[in-house]
Each structure stands twice: as C-alpha cells, then as structure tokens.
# Entry
Amino acid sequence: MKIGYRTIKTAIGAPIAIWIAQLLQLENYASAAILTILCIQVTRKRSVLSAWSRLVACILAILFSFVFFEVLGYDPYVFGLLLLLFIPATVKLKVTEGIVSSTVIILHLFNFGAIGMQEILNEVLIILVGLGTALIMNLYMPSLENNLQKIQKKVEDNFSIVLKEIANFLRNGDLSWTGKELTETSKLLDQAMNVAFHDVENHMLRRNTYSYFYYFKMRIKQFEHLERMVPLVSRISNTYEQNHDMADFFETLGKAVHPGNTASIFLDKLHVLKENFRNQDLPITRNEFETRANLFALLGEIEQYLLIKNSFVYDVPSENKKRKFAKT
# Structure
C-alpha cells in the first residue's frame, strides 16, 4: 500500500486544524478539519483556487443564513428555501466547489437558533483556520524535476531509435523492427504533459517552470510527423542511390536527438539534400518514380519535424531562453 504526499498532508493538517480551533474555543471546532481536508489538493494552484471558492461560498452562506433565518425563522422549510436560492448564487459566482463546506456553515448557524456577532465570528474563524491550515500544508510540494528529466531522456532515446530504424530500412530494407517505441512514446508524452502541467501549477509565480510544458508540447508535434514517416518508409520497396543519402541523413539525425536546438544545422543539410534530388535525372521506371515520390514526401515530413524544433526557442517565455532547452 502506497501512501502519497497528499494523504500524509491531510492526516497531519486535519488534526492541526481541530487543535487550533479548540485553542480558540470555537463551537463546532471539528468542522475546521473538513475544510482542511477539502482544500488540500494535488497542486498549489488548485489548493488556492479551492480555498478561494470555499471562502467566497462560506461568506455568502453566512449572509444568506442571516437574512433567511432571522427574517423567516429557524425552520426546516426555511433551510430548504435558502438552498433553493443559495446554490444558484454559487453557480452564478462560479464557486460551486464550496457548496458542501458552506452548507456545513449554514447548518451551524441553523443549530445556533440565533445569529449575532459572536456566532458569525465563530464561523469566520472556523473558515479561516480550516482554509489557512490547508494552504500552509500545501506550501510543500515534492519536486517533479527528476521525474520530468527521466521521461525527457526516455522520449529522446525513443526518437533516436525511430530515426535510426528508418535509416536502417532505407539502407537495407530491414523489416525486423517492431515499432514498439512508437506506442511507448505516445504513452510517455501523455504522462509527461500531465506531470509538466502539475509542475506549472506548483510554481505559479515562476514562469520558467513552463519550459518542460512547452518542451513536451514541441515533442508531441514532432511525434506526429514521426508517425507519418513510418508508413511512407514502408512503401519504399526498392533501393536507389537516394535511399542511401536519406539513410545517412536520418542516421546522423538519430544520433543528435537532445534538448538543445541544433535543428538549423540539419535544416541546412536537408536543403542541400533536396537540391541534389532536384538535380538528379528523372526516374525511368514506375517503381523508381514511386520510390522517389515517397522519399520526397519523407523529406517534407522531416523538414516539418526540424522546423518545429527550430522554432521551439521562440515559443517559450523570454526568460526560458537561458535554460538548457534553448542551448545549441
């Protein structure tokens, strides 16, 4: 059985909230733990948004309770009428996340049988203790840097394998490759975006943490072109001189997959390769024509692949250009 950080923080934060509420001699002090449990989220940003929604909803609940209970009385039907109008109000204000916790506050006030400054202060302090404890507990978030680096390394290794296997097929017509790296990379990129997004939400005031998020978005776009290359290569059934030139290019590119941006160098080589293709004699046979057509289409895909990487440095916030992703 694995116990996560969120569970540990919840187990520590809830009793602390109760303890603080008891020290303040608050009525219904255990409710502070409920607010703490509800507001401890998987990221700092989600925790802050959750706390804000519940704070607004709870303050709104106190106002509604004062008006309804003091004017119409402390009866069950009044409670139902209050909810009938209170819930749409939270929807309008976009704080529906706080409906459950604010209902607890409403029930406290209902049970008091009268709402004065003392009762209002009691509920406000319960809200502040519960939400404050949750926010303090969520100040600590485990670093996701190592996990992101591992995924990055594996994705780059798989990209390298795919490019080298394409080179191997162009040169030798080798069909032994299973293509498992494509399936694995697709799953890795989905996982990477999820982790990178959590990393962004844990560092709301540090924009340079967006680098991993943009980096993996770039790799996803490149991966789409890699996937399109495979069926193009599979349709090449004959080996010509152009195959070997392309194979050399793909093999060299496969050895250069890394976070740095050297795409401009390979784009220059690619333009030379395309120019050589144009200057060669026209194909004579149908098979040669089809092979040349597929090779040229393959050149188009790898050019787009390189252009995506080449433009990557311009897609991230300016301060990120100093990070390793933008190095050559």
User: Anything to note?
Assistant: Residues 44-72 form the longest helix (29 residues). Residues 36 and 131 are 6 Å apart (CA to CA). Confidence is low (pLDDT under 50) at residues 314-328. The chain has 13 helices and no strands.
